[in-house]
Each structure stands twice: as C-alpha cells, then as structure tokens.
Specification:
single chain; 478 residues; alpha+beta; Jelly Rolls; 2 domains; eight-stranded antiparallel sheet; 6 helices
C-alpha cells in the first residue's frame, strides 16, 4: 500500500472518530416546551373557525380595510381595529400571519368593545421587528434595534418582552398560538414558546398602568396599525369556567368535554397512597416504589369499594389517589359524609380542599361550652366556616367565602378549577374560593416553593366513612 493511500485512510478514520466524539447539539428548550404545549392544546381543544375565507361573519369594526381575498384576511394599509363579535374569557387562539417589511399589527385580548388594545386589555405584538424602520446601523456597521424589548414581536406590549429568533423572514407565513386561561398567558411562535407568564405576578415593564390586564373577558381584536398584514386559519378553542353543576343527569356519566375518573363499577383508574409524605413518595423509584405501591394498593382494596355505584370508604385505611397525574384542570365531584366526618381533596398531591361537618363542634367526651371564649376554642379548626376552604394555607386565605354545605348525610357538589397555583371552587353552586393560591404544604421552610406542575389527585382519609360519585375531570392546556 502506498504512503498516500495509507495517509488518506488514516485521515478518514481520524475524521470518523472525531465525528463520533462530537456531542449532538442540545435541543432548543423553547421548541421542546412549545411541542409539549401544542400537544396538550390539541388533546383538549374543540376548535371553532373565526374566518371562513369568504366574509367577516364573526367580526365587527373596520370591515372596510379588512378584506377577504382568496381565503386570506388582508388588513390593508390604513387598517385599524377589527374585533370579534363575541367576547371570550379563557381560550386558545391560533392563526397564521404574513408580514411585509417593517409591518405592524397586534392581537388584542379581553378588550372592551372599541377599547384600546394595549391598555383596555392587553396586546400581543405582531411586528417585523427586524425591519429597517425599527433598526439602525452604527458607524462601525453594527445593527442596533431602536424599539424597546417589550415591543418586539410576541411581547405583551408594555408588560413583558418576548424571546426573539423565531420570526420567519418577511413574506413567509408564520404560525402563532396564544393561550389565555385566567392569568396565564403563553405565546407560541412557529413551535417555540416566546412568552410564558402569569399576569398576577407581573409589573408592566413600561411603568405605565395597564388596567386591562385584570379583565376576565372581552373581545379578541386585530389591532391594525395602518400596515398591510395578511392572516389566515384563524380559530379559537374556549376554556371558560364550566357551570357549577355538570350538565349530565345520568350517574357517573361525564358531561361533554369531561372524562369520568370513576366508572361506578370498580377502582379502575385509582391507586393506593404509596407514602403519606409527598416529597418522600416522589423520591421513591424502582423496586422501592413498586413495593410501596403494591402494599398501598392492597390497603386500598381492603377499605375502598364500590357499593351501588358509589365510591365508598370504611374509614380504616388510607387516602385514595388517581393513577394519573394532573396539572391544570376542572373537577366535578359529588360527596357525602356522616355527622362529624372530616375529609378533603388533595390537588397535585397537596393538601387540601377541605371537606367536613360545619355543625359538629369538635368536642368529644366533654360538656358543651357555656361562654363565647369556650365556643371559639371549640371551633379552632374552623369547621364552622364550611367546606371548600384551602385549610392548610398560611400566607393566603384558607377559608371559604360562604357556608354552602348541605347537612351531613346529604350529597354535595364541588366544581374545582385549578390553573397554575390558583384554585377556584364552587360548592353547591356557590363560589366559595375565587382564584386563591394553594400553598405548597410540603415546603416546611416557608411554603413559598412552587407546587409540582402535575401530580395525583387524592381523596383524603381522615378516619371516617366517606362517599363519592360523579367524579369528572376536564384537563386544561398550559
């Protein structure tokens, strides 16, 4: 073999080895999270088209400058505000758009009729922030953006800047999805999450008041800024709060959009409590987890059963847990307790939405109190305030807004809605908790650590008989 051929083979082999040793590039976390978010949206969305390609059936406002052309909604130069005829509360809005050089528009969210997008509600920027109008060159040839960070495409105008680098070149179609559920706002541009915020935790970066951030409903608007911008494939999926009672009369049969957690026949979809401390339970892996879960399931089957379509607990075992973890959701639940009973519902493995008998004074083998101070002491557990409170809270409210319980032995109905770390609860059609933070009970240092993003739902054991039926869940995208 000649030396040239030998050298060539050595170089090829060295290159192969060198290539094998190169680390694969790390995946873009914004695209990874975007894919997960879009999957969750598609799994739970019931889309309604907002543009049929022919007319402005669902829209009002500047119907002269927004023109349907060949299936595309064109905002012509000089276009102003086009708004949906319907108001929306919690929703996901999906659309495609195409910009001209330096083109400018916006998506208004929860806007009052005829209101200003950026301040009457909130505005998600639609902007060619790479355009010449918004950039300049220094003497040494460097490109400098002349607009504020909170003005780039996808930003909540004046409130929170978006991440950049995902906008396609002028003349190409972009796909965007805006999630707006309670105070959670997420913007996904061409598959990448560029904004993910909870409005209640934000202070506007422009230093100006934005009263519209607190709106709970309003119109979706196309906030024209005189430039030509094209839109297509506009559609919306609603996730507004469900009515406080399920629209279903048949026992253990979920209403539209919900899934039954309990089938009325057996414990399918449920598991025993593997460890009473959630932190230690989450740390279990491998054989230790398998053994703990096997023992927990054995205890579950000994003390939880189905009697005449009712999930029944004899008071002797441990809490009952969903086999699946849940993040953001709505949960219907009918429950009944005997006099003096105590129970609750853990959300993401965290105590708890309280269930107890408000008329039980909590005194055992003692005489009844005969003065106000003794009565206050007797009621130190707060049970007289009623069920539905987040009783383990310390920094945020732990009590229900109103006593809404039916008497022990009668059925009660919960609607529990969880978005982020906030909970709203309706008991027997009365709102007893309104978007209150559920603190992380398992953070013993100060209850300031965030809740897990998803975990099991638990029916709490507290040493008394319990009865449940009509448990239905609707997962919310996030």
């Amino acid at each position: 073999m000649n030396r040239s051929l030998t050298l060539l083979l050595v170089l090829c082999f060295t290159g192969m080895v060198s290539g094998q040793n190169k680390k694969a590039p790390k995946p873009d976390p914004n695209l990874v999270e975007g894919a997960k978010s879009l999957d969750r949206i598609e799994a739970n969305a019931e889309w309604v088209s907002l543009f049929n390609g022919k007319d402005l059936e669902h829209w009002q406002g500047d119907t002269e400058k927004y023109i349907p052309q060949d299936g595309i909604l064109v905002c012509e130069q000089g276009g102003k505000i086009l708004e949906t005829k319907k108001e929306y509360s919690d929703f996901v809005f999906s659309f495609e758009f195409k910009l001209e050089e330096s083109g400018n528009n916006g998506i208004g969210i929860r806007i009052p009729k005829g209101g200003h997008a950026a301040y009457g509600g909130m505005e998600i920027q639609i902007l060619d922030h790479n355009g010449s109008k918004y950039n300049t060159e220094t003497k040494d040839g460097k490109k400098i953006r002349t607009i504020k960070p909170w003005q780039v495409h996808g930003s909540i105008y004046g409130v929170m800047p978006a991440k950049t680098g995902y906008l396609k070149p002028v003349g190409e179609w972009n796909q965007e999805t805006i999630l707006c559920i309670e105070d959670h706002i997420k913007v996904i541009l061409n598959g990448a999450v560029i904004v993910d915020a909870y409005l209640d935790d934000l202070s506007p970066v422009d230093g100006r008041p934005h009263p519209g951030l607190r709106n709970r409903k309003g119109h979706i608007t196309l906030a024209g800024h005189n430039d030509r911008v094209e839109f297509r494939s506009l559609k919306v999926a609603e996730f507004s709060p469900s009515p406080p009672r399920p629209a279903s009369s048949a026992e253990n049969t979920p209403p539209a959009g919900f899934t039954a957690l309990f089938n009325g026949k057996d414990l399918n979809g449920w598991k025993g409590l593997a460890h009473r401390n959630a932190n230690e339970r989450r740390a279990l892996t491998g054989k230790a987890l398998e053994e703990a879960q096997t023992e927990a399931d054995k205890t579950m089957n000994e003390h939880w059963s189905v009697v005449d379509g009712i999930l029944t607990y004899d008071g002797e075992g441990q809490s009952l847990c969903t086999a699946k973890d849940y993040a953001d959701f709505e949960l219907y639940m009918d429950w009944k307790i005997p006099p003096g009973a105590d129970s609750g519902v853990y959300l993401r493995g965290t105590p708890q939405v309280q269930i107890w008998d408000p008329w039980h004074i909590g005194i055992k083998d003692k005489e009844l109190p005969d003065n106000a101070e003794e009565w206050v002491t007797a009621y130190r557990t707060g049970r007289n305030l009623g069920s539905g409170g987040l009783w383990n809270n310390r920094r945020h409210s732990n009590r229900p807004l109103v006593l809404a319980d039916n008497k022990p032995g009668e059925w009660n109905t919960f609607l529990i809605r969880m978005v982020g770390d906030k909970v709203s609860i309706w008991l027997n059609e009365k709102n007893v908790i309104d978007r209150t933070v559920l603190e992380n009970f398992w953070d013993k240092e100060g209850r300031i650590l965030p809740l897990p993003r998803a975990d099991q739902i638990e029916l709490q054991h507290h040493g008394s008989e319990l009865f449940f039926k009509n448990l239905y869940i609707r997962e919310l995208p996030y």
